[in-house]
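Example record

The entry below shows one chain as it appears in the dataset: sequence first, then structure tokens.
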Amino acid sequence: MGNCLTSSQNEPQTRPIDSAFKLPSPLPTWPSSGGEFGSGYIDLGGLHVCQISSFNKVWVTYEGGPDNLGATIFEPSSIPDGFSVLGYYGQPNNQPLFGWVLVGKDNSTGADILKPPSDYNLIWSSETLKINQTSPAYIWLPVPPEGYKAVGHVVTTSPERPPADKIRCVREDFTENCEAESWVWGLGSSSDPNGFNVNSLRPNIRGIEAQGVPVGTFTANIGSAAVSLSCLKNNNFSTFSPMPNLAQIEALFKEYSPVVYLHPEETYLTSSVNWYFASGALLYKQGDESNPVAVNPDGVNLPQGGSNDGTYWLDLPVDEKARETVKKGDLNNTEVYLHVKPMLGGAFTDIVVWLFYPFNGPATAKLGILDLPLGRTGEHIGDWEHLTLRISNFTGVLHRMYFSAHSGGAWVDSRDLEFSAGGGGNKPVAYASRNGHANYSKPGVVLQGPNDEIGIRNDTAKSDLVLECGAKYSVVAAPESVSSAVVEPAWLNYRRKWGPHITYELKEEVEKLEGVLTGGVKELFQSLVNILPNELFEEDGPTGPKEKDFWSGDER
């Protein structure tokens, strides 16, 4: 950590940001590859960038922003020789210090990629605000030379313009458009159309072929004004040179493989795909429903490619006893499947961890103090869920993890994750909800509904039903640069449904439940039915991993 400003008389004694976040265990030495992964820098095609996480404090305010605890603005420090500052870093005070910015070095032989700004525009000052702060702050927007763009702000505690060489602008062919991501600070709410807000930045377009690289800087805007800064662009992206190779992927997964706690009353457990097929899963074809075909254990007789046109679907065994057995899965025969993909212009590697459940159980509603089972509502055959590890290609540090939950999910930064207490390493913990298998970062109850009294329950808790994702896994998809030895299994290219489509008679289901309810509880149930998504009232087998939008895109 760099030098700090002198404390003000009103400065609180301790805040979360006063401590820097560290993973629970020291990181191992990653296997060598001769490539850029873990080297601390990435070549964007003549522009070398280095990730800096050491800072000097510039300005602190102790109010406003998330939890009304204020925010801190930092200047990067300990910059390697030849590298230049591209922008400053800002973070809310309600979290441990956990951030970085990129600094740049021009290694090209042509026209300059980096140039000082031609001037600065003062876009905001706290000078007249009566807020608890270490000093007035002045936020400056660099005015780039023609053909260049600014990728970060400069912040000073003096109204004097910063020196021209304080920061560098970037040649526009090394930039991409970016957008506000998360709220850092403001005196109103993050949605105030007339308020001043500081937000972190990310590229507008994100996916496995997108070249935008986040700089780690922030944007300062009044109201909903367009973001005036850019992100970087990786012009060397086609080589995937920053990505880890297969040996490094295995080392990373050994270090960060998630630990998933299933609910103590969970009936429908995970399994491997091979176990599911070997246990009697059947392939049906439209027009020939009376002659289902047993799926080979390795799935080689599944239709390959095509589109999800309803021609084929999978189902459980016909025999009722076997059907009930397969629905329950087999935790001991579970295997997770890894999809490795470049993200954010190759600055990060995503390891998507796919979990398969043969069956998704029924939903339960919360109606005030009453819990009401909803019959078959919410059931479907074949349930794919996933967790995503986002790892810095500069350092190999786990940056954040994505938790899939029904049709959405959420990113959680490493500083906010729970890590497993056993087995060593830095294994993040996930909690899978009872029956529905939505993933969350903390135990408890999450309601899908309008308030804390009405909704569909997602119950999670720690139990003896534990899936150690690192115990058995296979890499099923990865770029050629990771390894040419990765062969996609046949089931991954089965692009049809993993279960049949059955529409329940919604009126009958509702009338069954309404018939046993009275008074206010009945009214609560009717209001719940009005807001439930249609998919809860039909059993629709999901498609496989490759049919999801985020297979080639970002999670959201």
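Notes for this example: The longest strand covers residues 348-360. Residues 1-9 have pLDDT under 50 and may be disordered.
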